[in-house]
Structures are given as C-alpha cells and as structure tokens.
Amino acid sequence: MTDTHHLIEKAKQVLITNDRGGYTVPTDKLYPFQWNWDSAITALGWMQIDEPRAWQEIEMLIKGQWPNGMIPHIVFHEEVDTYFPGPSVWGVDLPVKTTSISQPPVLASIVNMMYEASTDKAIATDRALKLLPALMKYHLWWYRDRDPENTGLVVSYHPWESGMDNSPAWDKSLAAVPPATWQYQRKDTDHIDAEERPKAFEYDRFVYLVDFFRQADFDADTLYRTCPYRMYDIGIISILHKATADLIALAEAVLMPAPSNSPNLSRLPADEHINTSAPTSEHPSVLSLALTSELMASLNELKQRYALTQQNIGKLWHVPSNTFQSQDAITQAFSHELTTGTLLPLLAGFGDKTQKQHMQHLLQTWLQLKPYGLSSTHPKSNEFEAKRYWRGPIWVHVNWLIAMGAELQGFEDEAKAIKNSAKALIEQNGYFEYFDCESGVGCGGDTFSWTAAVSLHWLLTQKAEKK
Ligand code: GLC
After folding, report:
1. Domains of the chain with CATH codes
2. Pocket of ligand 1 contains residue 37 by CB under 6 Å
3. What would the DSSP string read from start to end of 265-301?
4. What are 359-382's pLDDT values in tens digits?
5. In a 10 Å sphere around its CB, with 0-12 CB exposed, 13-18 middle and 19+ buried, how is residue 395 labelled?
6. Could you tell me which of 100, 127, 129 has the C-alpha nearest to residue 43?
7. pLDDT digits (tens, 9 = 90+) for 169-225
8. Is 35 in the pocket of ligand 1 (CB under 6 A)?
C-alpha cells in the first residue's frame, strides 16, 4: 500500500468513525453534534466515498434551519453531555434544538462544488434543486437580518459565529462585552489541554453573549441595535460573498438548464411544494409555479445584495496596513490584526489590482515565515501563540479556502505552496483539528472530520486534482 493510499483510507475511516447516522460530528466528545461549516466541508470528503451520503450531510444540517432562514452553527440532533454550552443554555424553543447564531456560510459554495463534481448529474440536480429554497432563504437571512440598513456589509454577533473563536482580531471588541453573571462549567478543557484553548476571560464573554441572545428573545431588531458585540467580520463577509456568487450560479444551472438538458421545472399546481427529503427515482424534482417565481425573486434580490457588497467593500480596506480588516460595527475601530481572515477576500475577489497585489505580497511573505503553511495569526503579531487555537496554529481547511482564493486570483505559485505544505503536514502528523505552526505537531481533537475531508477532496485524491 502506498503512503497516499494509506492516508486516503485513514481519512475515509475518520469520516466513517465520526458518522452519527446521516450527519458527521467534527470529532468525538469535544464536538459531539453537527456543526455548520464543519459539516459543509465534511460533505466534500463524503463525495469521495459515497455521493448520496454527502447530500444527506447537508440535508441533515438544514433540518436545523430556523423559520427566518438562519442555519445555526450547531444542530443538537441528540443529547450528549460532553459539551458546554448545550441546548438549555442557548434556550432555543424549536422542534430541532440548535444554537442561536450561524457560522461562516461556506455551505452554498460547497453545494455548488458537489453539484459540479457529481458523477450522477440526475441525482445531483434533484438534490440541489431540493436544497435551493433553503440555501436562498439562508443567504437572504444574512442580508436582511444582518444588514437591515443595506450597507453591503453583514454584521456578526459572536466570535463563535466567525468560526475563529479566540482570534486576536476580536480581542478589543470582546473586552467591551461584560462577563457572564453565573458560574458555569466548561467542558472543552476536560478533553484538551487548557494551554491550547481560549482563556477564561474570553469564555466569560462568549457565555454572556449566549445569555444576551436568549434574553433578547433572539429578536433581529433588538440584536442589531443593542448586541454589545457587533463585528464586520471580513472572513464571514468574504465567504458569504463567494457563496452568494456560487449560489446564483447553482440556481441558474438547476432552474434554467440549457435546452438540451432534461427539464427540471415540470410545473405542478401551485400548492405542490418541494421538500428536502431524499429523492427517489419515482419522485423526480418538480417545482410549483409559485415556488419557481419565489425563487426567481430571491435570485434577483441576491444579485442586488451581491452588487451592494461589491460596491461597499472598500469601507473595510485599512490603508495603513494595506489589507482588508474586520471592523467593530459599534466603535468603527479596525481590528488591526493580521489573521487568516485578512486573506479570505481573495476568495471573494475583493479589491482592485493594487489591493490584490498587496494581498499577494502578504501571502508570499507570510508563507515564508513558517514551514507548514499559513498560521491562523501572523507570526509577527504580538498576540501570536503557536499552539493556542486561533491565535497561531494552522487550520488546514482555512489554508484550503485561501489556496482556492489564490488560485482564483491567478496566484498559482502561492496556491501550490499552500497545498504542498498542507500535504506535508497531514502526511507527517495525521488528521488533527489544527496544528502547531512551528513543529507541525497535531493539536486539539484527533481524528477530525474537516481535516480528513479536505485531504480527501484537495490533498490526496485524483478527483481533487480536477478543476
Ligand atoms: C471550534 C472552531 C469552529 C468549529 C468548531 C467545531 O469552535 O473554532 O470553527 O466549527 O470548533 O469543529
């Protein structure tokens, strides 16, 4: 067995081990539920093993979607007591228990990739068509609830929403949030060395915000006006922008197929709505006339929102550092930190030629500083810590997103350098949650789904080489 073959088999085994019957946990015990961006990325790994199972991953995630369109950051499909804060702290009174915030919305980009990579186009079209209303509703939720004043920039309410929990980019804004007012018991440090995890100072504020959302009854307007943490997160904004472009492309592909393709839009009476259950060959994709026109209206709205972000993203260009930066929406202060979030605009295609050159230069110099790719925080930052979660370690899935962005901008050499480093990292250290950016040693949870999935999709398998 070659080394690559062995690594592929090992990666598949990680996903199979973490499968909980239709959805995949990031890792046992530490993260025992379904996480939003983890699951989306994990579905790409499933595509290499079992395509219907990959679609099912997304369908399970969407079971947690709120009536307002939000797809939560965690869906608590079953009760497990190895994680804090669980459903009772979040206090969401819906049939499927979830948290009350979202996560970087990479989902629609992934569904589009799955659609494009699928070997059975009929099944993929059917599954994508059924997911489309939920995906559109999700994106519109971001734009309507998180940018009600049409600024072009959505706002985020919790560092957990960024997916980069204790990134130094949030330090100053988080410090302005009061601490939780009750004694709670963390569980993450039962599983992982506290030296690698966020500190108590941050957790106290993370928990305060969870309480705040519940006490505000999750009311969109109240949160927009009064949440004590409001961030224009350049990572979320970039991922959302790219995902909206991908969603528009997907919608156009499945709603308006070329005349030679089989028609997906068999019209049914107006009350016949689609559902998201698994399709069967006896149940072909069909959309009602009413739903079709609703989707077309959503598509137009998404195009307008996309254009608005494109017009206004310049507000997040921070002249002194020549980078796009996150900005506190309350104080208007830029975060002044170089984190991997500052390179995600490459994925969205933000910036003019000069701004892109600045980002390319930053990418090149950053890559030279450490042996295994992009550290989550720039090694020269005062806040850099090689092992502590989002303050330095390497996260393979973020390196993959940035490599994709670099490739989209024609920065082929940098994209290749990121890929080679990531490959060396997993070959030497396996499928950990994240990696010490100096030694490459695996940190956090072992047998971690997104690292294995990114390996299957990007680093190791043939299909990943195809564009
Ligand atoms: C942590 C990470 C977040 C991830 C989750 C599950 O909270 O910061 O990005 O989604 O764990 O892996």
Report:
1. 4-466 (1.50.10.10)
2. yes
3. -EEE-TT-----SPP-TTS--EEEHHHHHHHHHHHHH
4. 999 999 999 999 999 999 999 999
5. buried
6. 127
7. 999 999 999 999 999 999 999 999 999 999 999 999 999 999 999 999 999 999 999
8. yes
